[in-house]
From TrEMBL:
Organism encoding this protein: Pacificispira spongiicola
KW Transmembrane helix (keyword) present: no
Pfam family, one: DctP
Signal peptide boundaries: 1-25
Family, per entry: Belongs to the bacterial solute-binding protein 7 family.
Keywords of the record: Signal, Transport
Keyword set includes Signal: yes
One of the GO biological process terms: transmembrane transport
Protein name: TRAP transporter substrate-binding protein DctP
Compartments in which it is found: Cell envelope
Gene Ontology cellular-component annotations: outer membrane-bounded periplasmic space
Principal cellular location given in the protein's record: other
């Protein structure tokens, strides 16, 4: 029978064969992420658990470790490499520190729409990038989704790039994002996501940027007054397994995990779409002041130097392929 557990407390478990003596031994696997339970990532983990349990006849139980219970995304990726966590869904935020080839995906205004992003990430280009990730002591199963990112802050409405000036804005630990916000005049402050709510509350930072599913599930209305729908970057997510887990699976089992991954991606994308449809209304109901129509061309021009820095370091081959594919 399908069962999923969420642990509130942190705790690193290796793969544990549990319930010995039962007709079919059950193996408990930790699937970790940093967003809230019932968020878009959580929906993916739940769909994964259900499909894997069904295909394996209950052999595998997924233990969801939500809300940063096992650390921030950088910690989780390191955990996969040393085998202290089995499965993770993460944004690409810290991934470029492990696999620089993925940094191209973090360039602002690269993807024109959700459909365009799905077409690229589900096709040859996405597969080539997954293969690169898998060369780094990680097993990259699929691209999933975080969503288009928007700016929130507690100080003033952001209507033009000039309004970003000197705003102490939390960014992901990602050099492309930091460079883009520095170029736009903000003061980027990289920080792991589990620390962000408290930092906003204590006004260590003025603002942050994240997709609607994150802003709603983290209840940022409690600590942020202003939201601007900048849509400045499409934020992919990736589903990763630890080589320790993967290398111990039979080919048949790997097939089950791949099917479960498909179910996870579909569920996460469906939740992102639902949150996109209802989230802004919800945020307004909770008192947020939302600036909906922004001059995207002005924001695009403001972050343009991030492209020059990126190309001078990493070249433009993959960038051009992605641009040509949309
Ligand atoms: O802002 C971030 O760090 C990411 O978008 C998040 C919320 C951890 C989801 O991947």
């Amino acid at each position: 029978m399908y069962r999923i557990r969420t642990l509130a407390a942190a705790g690193a478990f290796a793969i544990s064969a549990a319930f010995a003596g039962a007709a079919s031994a059950q193996t408990v696997l930790n699937f970790a992420h940093t967003t809230a339970q019932n968020s878009h990532y959580s929906m993916g983990v739940q769909a994964f658990a259900e499909k894997l349990s069904e295909l394996s006849g209950g052999k595998y139980e997924i233990r969801e470790q939500a809300a940063g219970a096992m650390g921030g995304e950088r910690d989780l990726i390191e955990g996969l490499q040393i085998g202290s966590v089995e499965l993770v869904i993460s944004s690409t935020g810290p991934l470029g520190n492990f696999v620089p080839e993925t940094l191209v995906l973090d360039l602002p205004f690269l993807f024109k729409s959700y459909d365009a992003a799905h077409a690229v990430l589900d096709g040859e280009i996405g597969q080539a990038l997954l293969d690169k990730v898998s060369e780094n002591n990680l097993v990259a199963l699929a691209w999933s989704e975080n969503g288009f990112r928007h700016v929130t802050n507690s100080d003033h409405p952001v209507k033009t790039p000039a309004d970003l000036k000197d705003l102490k804005l939390r960014t992901m630990e990602n050099q492309v994002h930091m460079e883009a916000f520095r170029a736009a005049g903000a003061s980027p402050t990289p920080m792991a996501f589990p620390e962000v709510f408290a930092a906003l509350q204590q006004k260590v930072i003025d603002g942050q940027e994240n997709p609607i599913p994150v802003i709603t599930s983290a209840k940022f209305w409690e600590v942020q007054k202003y939201l601007t729908l900048t849509g400045h970057v499409y934020s992919p997510a990736i589903i990763l397994a630890s080589p320790t887990l993967w290398d111990g699976l039979s080919d048949e089992e790997k097939g089950w995990f791949r099917e479960a991954t498909k179910a996870a991606v579909a569920a996460t994308r469906a939740k992102v779409a639902a949150d996109e449809a209802n989230g802004v209304k919800l945020l307004r109901e909770h008192g947020m002041d939302v600036t909906e129509s922004v001059d995207q061309a002005a924001f695009q021009a403001a972050v343009r130097p991030a492209y020059d820095t990126f190309v001078s370091k990493y070249g433009d081959e993959m960038l051009k392929r992605i641009q040509a594919a949309q």
